[in-house]
Amino acid sequence: MTNGNSILSSFGTTIFEVMSRLAQEHNAVNLGQGFPDGNGPDDVVEAGVDYLRNGVNQYPSMFGIPDLRQAVAEHAERFYGLSIDWQRETMVTSGGTEALGASLLGLIEPGDEVILIEPLYDSYLPIVQRGGGVAKLVRLKPPNWELSRAELEAAFSNKTKLILVNTPMNPCAKVFNLEELEFIAALCQKHDAFAVCDEVYEHLAFDGEPHIPMITIPGMRDRTIRIQSAGKIFSLTGWKVGMITASPDVLTPIAKAHQYLTFTTPPNLQAAVAFGLRKDDAYFEELNSDMQARRDHLADGLRDVGFGVIPCQGTYFLTTDFRPLGYNGTDTDFCKYLTVEAGVAAVPVSAFYTSGEEGYFARFSFCKKAETIDEAIRRLKAHFG
Ligand code: GLN
Fold first, then answer.
1. Separate counts of helices (H) and strands (E) for the chain
2. For 254-265, how does the pLDDT look when each residue is reduced to its tens digit (9 = 90+)?
3. Which one of 3.40.640.10, 3.40.50.1860, 3.40.710.10, 1.10.10.10 gives the CATH number of domain 42-279?
4. How many A from CA of 33 to the centre of ligand 1?
5. For the CA atoms of the chain, what is the radius of gyration?
6. What is the homologous superfamily of the domain 6-40+282-384 according to CATH?
7. Is 79 in the pocket of ligand 1 (CB under 6 A)?
8. pTM, whole model, 2 decimals?
9. Ligand 1: does its nearest atom lie under 6 Å from the Cβ of 33?
């Protein structure tokens, strides 16, 4: 009888799975896990069907099909004015999750320090630790999610291998501005560190504020790993097509991890994503304005119910303060209670902290149909009266 790996075994089941299972058991409206309840753009889905039928079904190159890699470079030029050599600087992965995993496992040496910003996405810490990295945590707190320059500076050392930056940031819906990115960039350059940038919500920065990729900041072109996800760009989260852009010397060690993790990603979906990335500007504008409208729809409803709603600059998520409703337990208890008793699932924000933040904040996803949001609000109003 052997035990599992001690690092991975020390983590429980991820909160997204826990809350989605509970939602299913209790027939709750699931505003917990962040996935749209629509079926994505018809033409992208149709392209996928065509490529499945017409024989794009065998192992492609481990770097991805040329058409998608070219489309990634064209997209970067169109939206950010970046000039990318698709043959040497792009790689397709099985989702943003694998892109993160391959980047961290490919770059970290045991004992390297890795700076993570809390609240953090579920996969970051386990993979950093499994890769032998030593996490240095910097904490952002609701309701302002302000980045302390002093704390960030103190987290860097001569052992820092990389910082992981997620913008627009899940779950706090913060979009890093130019000044913050420049501050982080200067520290990376001073300490010769990489920036692994999780930009899966790049097209979901709201209110006309731009998403700024770290790779565009002067001095960061050759030390940034930019990560994208087709799941978020096309509201097709189950597709699991991710994309990495990095300079050749940085991409090479990441490819060494990727080749043994998944090696490739379904080529038919890659081809459909290539088609999607070339859609006209109107598609991307509509995705953004549509999601912003859903944000406002859910925020208004939650405010009506009595929640405190924290400003949301991007992503799929709203953070709310449930104290005004008179609930006195922890956020974990509140989200379970809400799922079971009110029939609406949310995710406790403390799940995104390593310790000590059992607070009174719940995260709700608004990437849902209007009728789904309406039904959730109807149930919450009925419950809280
Ligand atoms: N990114 C999604 C969220 O934050 C969930 C992804 C997942 O379940 N792994 O809800």
1. 15, 13
2. 999 999 999 999
3. 3.40.640.10
4. 5
5. 20
6. Aspartate Aminotransferase, domain 1 (3.90.1150.10)
7. no
8. 0.97
9. yes
